[in-house]
Design brief:
The complex is a heterotrimer of chains A (322), B (258) and C (232). Chain A contains 15 helices and 13 strands. With 322 residues, chain A is α/β, with parallel strands linked by helices. The chains are: A alpha/beta (322), B mainly alpha (258), C alpha/beta (232). The structure holds adenosine-5'-diphosphate (ADP) and magnesium ion.
């Protein structure tokens, strides 16, 4: 029994050690870790990386890039203070904010058409779905899921009406499943998958994000943690500056942009051009559509409160449009 | 002896729980990372009262039992086939060599193309993860059957099929039971990870789906609640079900080393 | 009743073939006890397995009651040296009843049970009917195996050093049990042992000069043995 007690003491010491270790982690000198996901919606970040705009904007800053598989992973890494700035859609950001994560939006990144594609000729609106249909989308709480729920609220007065048909799949798998004519009969996605799917005659667009939102909205925003914003003010400023530079570089140096992106994504220049020219694809630091998402999500219990003021969810100087 | 072991286990669990609570309440870690026991309990009660956690647990268990059942039948058939001739035996062994190291999750994209995203696909993955360890144990068990048992069987006039049923299967029961233990653990893992990739099927999901949903909506306490349920089921099956089966069979018959 | 004629058997060890049994001929009559005596490794078990139909001879013939032995039958039961010849998942009684059931002896369970109990009583295993084999001592296990064999009422028992792993006292009591049972049932017995003492206790008390068995080398050996035994 005495031995056991010794073990407990060791465990306790270990545990306390871990705890204090955690809290001391923060004041790493001048570093920034940025997390993104795969896709052309994150194009300005490839420009920033390639041209080393962030390093130029603050020579003392050590920059780390992380590419992650999904929004939940980015959110968890930011919670663990392994990532300072993460890019994601507005709904996952709001969910984290609602749960008490100390983070705010630092700026917009891109807008993109998103849409629901079906391969069944009988389906022309969401009203035509039957019990046997399956709608693939990235995950519950994703922007695609929230947009579909919004459409359901409008159409049926019940945002959960189609929840039973949902199936969780990353974009590429969703596209495969739709094209291979498995039981997946619809896919809520964004370019290049969206445009790819619509090239096939069997597929048609039955719902678009803009239609649901009744206007343009920001697809991807950059989110910075409070600890990074507060403890590394210069790094934060440098990041904002580099982000703006990246976006304006894309507007003014089209040819170079296409080249960089074609290399970064290992796709042809034609494909990059086609994507950049797609109706609705836009890169901008302004943030649009926040209120609509927040109101809807509160109304349907995805979050428990709406932000009382912009300052609650955005760092200073973020350009916001309703 | 057994009893003391169990009491020790309980004491350890209790200590770990206390350490957990101390860490959670120390205020040094965010409850989004380390929710307190109270929060987890609350999330569990809430999820059970809502009816979601219970029905999803049952859904998971039902799928596992289905997969285990199909996997066991296939394992028996293949084990019997492998005994029929030398070349069939090498065929079965080749199959095991090829398929056993493949994690079910790695097969997922192909399974979706073949079987779609329905229940069948999840069952398929479970069958895959259960079949090979079971088959391997069955074959080893058959091989380890003392020759004298089958000599006695032949002597009293059993034909090959009856010999298998009446001699080889009971004789390899220790291997069979440990095969089922491995299969059960693998089935759980396969199911949870498959569900976390697949999501719900036709609005019904299991525990993996539940955990995934809690994750995307950042309900850490809810996530832990589901983990606790998984652990409880594990303990129940390992320490109660399998234990009972062993006591009633191989331990009663003196077929364990212990 | 069992007759061997010019039986030969060889095994291959790696590439080499080596003869274990060469040109063996002998016969056993109904109700006789024949002891096969020989050093370990000389081929006693091999011979017994051939007689039981578990293996087939390379050449020569083995016939029982006039018909060729080609596979094991319940009419000649092999009793092994190994203690684990009982099925561990059956009780002593079930171990005896099960072969009866397989061979459709008696219609009712009740009858089979009575029959089994009779033989268990014959080998003096009263009170252990419901024990599992692992709860028995080695001697009791061999008794149970003997009861299982006798209960099937075979024409012949092939016993392969059945008491070889027992201590001297237990062995003696089992020898007595065996001889008593033989008396009651009249079964023919081929009893393999490497122990001369045991052979003398078991074998038919009228020691006959052996009929020709095996090669001339064997014959010489046998002659020697015979003189030793007769002098006693
Ligand atoms: N299945 C087998 N394959 C090869 N060799 C065997 C086999 N069975 C027995 N032998 C060999 O035959 C010889 C006789 O064995 P066995 O009949 O068991 O002897 P005993 O019973 O008299 O001790 C031994 O040398 C043994 O190694
Ligand atoms: Mg032998």
């Amino acid at each position: 029994m005495k031995r056991t007690i010794k073990w407990i003491a060791v465990l306790l010491v270990l545990l306390l050690g871990i705890n204090t270790g955690c809290s001391k982690q923060a004041p790493d000198l001048k570093q920034i870790t940025i997390a993104e996901q795969y896709g052309l919606a994150y194009a300005p970040l490839q420009i920033m990386k390639e041209l080393r705009l962030l390093e130029k904007s603050d020579a003392n800053l050590l920059v780390n890039w992380r590419q992650m598989g999904n929004t939940a992973a980015i959110r968890e890494a930011m919670l663990a203070e392994e990532v300072d700035v993460g890019f994601m859609a507005i709904p996952p950001f709001l969910i984290g904010w609602d749960k008490g994560m100390e983070w705010k939006i630092a700026g917009g990144l891109s807008s993109s058409p998103v849409g629901l594609v079906s391969n069944r000729s009988e389906v022309s609106t969401i009203k035509d779905f039957t019990e046997s249909d399956r709608i693939a989308l990235p995950q519950p709480g994703s922007v695609q899921h929230i947009l579909l729920s919004m459409a359901c609220e409008k159409e049926f007065g019940d945002s959960h009406k189609l929840d039973n048909l949902l199936i969780t799949m990353a974009h590429p798998e969703g596209m495969n499943a739709l094209m291979a004519e498995t039981d997946v009969t619809a896919h809520f996605t964004a370019p290049p998958y969206l445009t790819g799917e619509l090239k096939s005659k069997e597929n048609r667009l039955i719902l678009s994000g803009e239609e649901v939102m009744g206007g343009e909205f920001t697809f991807i925003v950059g989110v910075a943690t409070k600890s990074f914003h507060d403890e590394n003010a210069e790094g934060y400023k440098a990041f904002i500056k580099a982000l703006e530079e990246s976006i304006s570089f894309m507007e003014t140096n089209k040819i170079e942009t296409v080249e960089i992106l074609s290399n970064a994504y290992a796709i042809s220049k034609e494909e990059v051009e086609e994507y950049l020219d797609t109706q609705g694809v836009e890169y901008a630091a302004k943030v649009q559509g926040l209120d609509k998402f927040a109101d809807f999500m509160k109304r349907n219990d995805y979050i428990s409160k709406t932000p009382a003021s912009k300052a609650e969810i955005m760092w200073d100087d973020v350009y916001y449009e309703d | 002896m057994m009893c003391i072991m169990k009491i020790k286990k309980f004491i350890w669990i209790f200590i770990l729980l206390i350490l957990w609570q101390i860490t959670a309440l120390s205020g040094k870690v965010s409850p989004l990372i380390f929710p307190s026991l109270g929060m987890i309990l609350k999330a569990m009660v809430h999820a059970i009262i809502q009816g979601e956690l219970l029905s999803q647990t049952l859904f998971s268990i039902a799928i596992i039992i289905e997969g285990l059942f199909i996997g066991a039948i296939l394992a028996f058939v293949l084990a019997i086939v492998s005994r029929m001739s030398e070349s069939l035996n090498s065929l079965v062994e080749t199959l095991i060599t090829l398929a056993h190291p493949l994690p079910g999750i790695a097969l997922l994209p192909i399974i979706i193309l073949w079987l779609g995203t329905g229940r069948a696909s999840i069952v398929f993955i479970i069958v895959h993860s259960v079949l090979w360890p079971l088959l391997l144990n069955l074959i080893t068990g058959f091989r380890a059957t003392p020759k004298v048992y089958s000599d006695v069987g032949r002597n009293i006039g059993l034909n090959r099929l009856v010999l298998l049923k009446e001699i080889h299967i009971p004789a390899s029961l220790p291997y069979l039971i440990s095969g089922f233990k491995i299969a059960w653990a693998r089935a759980w893992r396969a199911l949870i990870s498959a569900e976390m990739v697949f999501g719900a099927v036709g609005g019904k999901g299991g525990l993996g789906w539940y955990i995934f949903k809690q994750r995307v909506f950042m309900d850490t306490a809810g996530m832990f609640a589901a983990l606790v349920v998984i652990m409880l089921i594990g303990i129940l099956v390992e320490e109660v079900l399998f234990e009972r089966v062993e006591v009633l069979t191989i331990r009663r018959w003196g077929m364990t080393e212990k | 009743m069992i007759e061997l004629l010019n039986v030969t058997k060889s095994f291959s060890k790696g590439k080499e073939k080596f003869k274990v049994l060469e040109d063996i001929s002998f016969s056993v009559n109904k109700g006789e006890i024949l002891c096969l005596l020989g050093a370990s490794g000389c081929g006693k078990s091999t011979l017994l397995r051939l007689m039981g139909g578990f293996d087939l001879p390379d050449s020569g013939s083995i016939a029982m009651n006039g018909s060729k032995v080609s596979k094991p039958t319940p009419d000649s039961i092999l009793v092994f040296q190994e203690f684990n010849q009982l099925l561990p998942w059956k009780t002593v009684l079930q171990n005896v009843i099960y072969p009866l059931k397989v061979n459709h002896k008696y219609q009712s369970d009740q009858k089979r049970r009575e029959h089994a109990e009779k033989y268990l009583e014959m080998v003096k295993l009263e009170g252990f009917y419901h024990s599992f084999p692992h709860q028995l001592s080695g001697g009791m296990k061999q008794k149970a195996a003997l009861a299982r064999a006798l209960a099937l009422q075979p024409s012949i028992l092939l016993m392969d050093e059945p008491f070889g792993s027992l201590d001297a006292l237990t062995r003696q009591s089992l020898q007595t049990v065996l001889l008593e049972s033989w008396d009651k049932t009249g079964v023919s017995i081929i009893f393999v042992t490497h122990d001369i003492q045991e052979a003398m206790e078991i074998a038919d008390n009228t020691l006959q000069r052996p009929r020709s068995i095996g090669s001339s080398e064997y014959m010489k050996l046998y002659e020697k043995l015979y003189t030793i035994l007769c002098e006693k």
